[in-house]
Amino acid sequence: MSKHPVTNLTPANIVAFLEDIFERRGGEEYLGEPVTMAEHMLQGATLAERSGQDEIIIVAALLHDIGHFTSEFGTFSMEDTEDRHHEDAGADVLQAFFPTLVTDCVRFHVAAKRYLCATRSEYFARLSAASVHSLNLQGGPMSAQEVSAFETNPNLREIIAVRYLDDAGKHADMETPAFAHFAPMVQRVVDQHCGPTR
C-alpha cells in the first residue's frame, strides 16, 4: 500500500499534490546526506535554474526523488539491504501528467549513476557515502551490455544532466527558494503535456 494516496489526481491538482508532499515530508532527513529531502531536490532545481537550463530540466531535477515519498517500500536508509525502487515509484506517479523527458529523468536517474560509474572513471570518486551504499543495492556499475542498452535512450543527455544536478544538490548551507517558486513552471510543463487546466 502506498504511503500517499495517488488516486483522483488530475492536471489541475497534481502540482498542489506535489507541493503538499514537499511541505509535509520534505523536512525528513535525506539519510546519509547533510540536507533534508526537500533541500536536496530544491537545490537541484535551483542549480539548474541558475545555470540557465530549460524549464523541463529544472522541473525534472525538482521532482527526481519524489518517489522516496510515494514508494510503497518507504524511504531510503543507510541500513537498507535491498533497493526500494524510488525511481520507479516517482515516475509512476508523474507519468500521466508529465512528458516522457521528465519521467525518464526520474525513472532513470539511478541507472544514470550506474552508467556514469561504468563509463567515467572519475565519477565514482565524487559520490557521497550514501550514494555508494545505494549504488551497491542498485546493482553497482553497469555491465557493457547494460551501457549499450542505456545509450539508446533518446533522452540520455537530459537524464545525465539531471543526475549531475542530483549529485550537486547536497550542500548543508545552500539557500534556495521554496517549492512555490517553481510551482508555476511545474504547472506549465503539465499544461504543455496535458493541455491548459484553466
Largest sheet: none
Unreliable stretches covering 5 or more consecutive residues: 1-5, 72-78
- The proportion of strand residues reads under 5%
Which secondary-structure class do the elements indicate? mainly alpha
SSE pattern: HHHHHHHHHHH
Instruction: Tell me the span between the first and last alpha carbons.
Output: 33 Å
CATH class membership of one domain: Mainly Alpha
Q: How many H/I helices?
A: 11
Q: What is the average of the pLDDT values?
A: 87
Q: Architecture of one domain, CATH level 2?
A: Orthogonal Bundle
**Can you tell me the overall shape?**
globular
- The rounded Rg comes to 16 Å
The portion of residues assigned to helices is 55-70%
Q: The CATH topology of one domain, please?
A: Hypothetical protein af1432
Oligomer: single chain
> Total number of β-strand segments?
0
CATH homologous group name of one domain:
Hypothetical protein af1432
Keyword list:
198 residues; mainly alpha; 11 helices; globular
Walk me through this protein's architecture.
This protein is mainly α and 198 residues long. The protein has a domain at 14-109 and 156-194: Orthogonal Bundle (Hypothetical protein af1432). It is 57% helix and 0% strand. The protein is built from eleven helices and no strands. It has helices spanning 14-25, 37-50, 55-63, 67-70, 86-94, 100-107, 109-119, 129-137, 144-150, 156-168, 179-194. Helix 2 (37-50) crosses helix 10. It is globular. The model is unreliable at 1-5 and 72-78 (pLDDT under 50).
